[in-house]
From TrEMBL:
Superkingdom as given in the UniProt entry: Bacteria
The UniProt record lists the keyword Transmembrane: yes
Source organism per UniProt: Neobacillus piezotolerans
Pfam families: Phage_holin_5_2
This protein's name: Holin
InterPro entries noted in UniProt: Clostridium_phage_holin
TM ranges: 6-24, 36-52
Assigned keywords, A-Z: Membrane, Transmembrane, Transmembrane helix
Length: 88
């Protein structure tokens, strides 16, 4: 099952926004790596509530957007690491 297919099209803007925010958090020395996913989760919910109101649809799609952002980032990162290790 493709996670992005479950996400409502109105929430697609959250995924790249969360990638940028996650990158900024990763480069922030005082933010531990383990906490980045929780920051992204909270930010995704807040942005969904601001854009679409406090309702079940916003909550579910905020969760899905955070999941798609983290899953997409990890897929790209691990694929690149695998390709780099094969070159060595």
């Amino acid at each position: 099952m493709d996670l992005i297919k479950l996400l409502n099209q109105n929430y697609y803007f959250l995924v790249p926004a969360l990638w940028v925010i996650g990158y900024a958090l990763k480069k922030t020395p005082r933010v531990p790596d383990w906490s980045i996913i929780w920051y992204l989760f909270g930010i995704s919910l807040v942005l969904a509530w601001i854009a679409f109101g406090f309702n079940v649809d916003a909550i579910l799609n905020g969760i899905l957007a955070a999941g798609a952002a983290v899953f997409g980032h990890q897929t790209l990162k691990q694929t690149m690491e695998s390709l780099d290790s094969r070159k060595k």
